[in-house]
Predict the structure.
Amino acid sequence: MAEVLLFHHVLGKTKGIEEISEQLRGAGHTVHVPDLFDGRIFSTLEEGLAFVKEIGFNEVTARGVRVASELSRDVVYAGFSLGVPAAQQLAQTRDGAKGALFFHACLPTSAFESPWPADLPVQIHAMSEDPFFVEDGDIDAARELVASADRAELFLYEGKEHLFTDSSIPSYDADATRLVIKRVLEFLA
C-alpha cells in the first residue's frame, strides 16, 4: 500500500478533501493531509486567494515542503490546485518519491531546479474547459510533462469546473470524481 502526502486547494482542508483522503484510506493507503491554512476554510475562490496573497504563495508551498521533511521520502505526493506546487516540487526534486498526483493544476517542469525524473509515475487530472487549467497554461505544462516522462498520464474530463473533485462545493462533479478515484486507486495499487 502507498503512503500519500496530499495538499489541499485554495479553499483549505474542506470536507471534500477529507472525503477523498478517506476513500484512499479505505483502500488501505496511508494518507497525510496537512492543514496549510491553520484551520481556515473559505467558501469562495476569491476569499481563499485573498488569504493566500496575505501569507504568500511561496509560503504555502514552503509549508508543504516543511511537512514533507517530517515523513519518509518514499511517498506519493498529491496536490489539488494550490497544493500542486508543493506536491510537484517535492516529487520533482526530493529523492525517493514513489509518484505524483496533480489535480486541477500542473506547473512547467522548468519551475524547479531539476528536471522531472523520467521514470517517476505521475497522473494529472483536470476538466478540459477549466479556465484556470487551460487559460493559465497548466494544460500546456501537463502535456509537456507527459511528453517528457516515461510514466505520465493526463486525464481530461468533460466540463469547465475547476475544483470538480471536492464534494463540499457547488462545482463538484460526482461522475467525473468517481472516475478520478478509480484511476487514482489503480495508480496507487
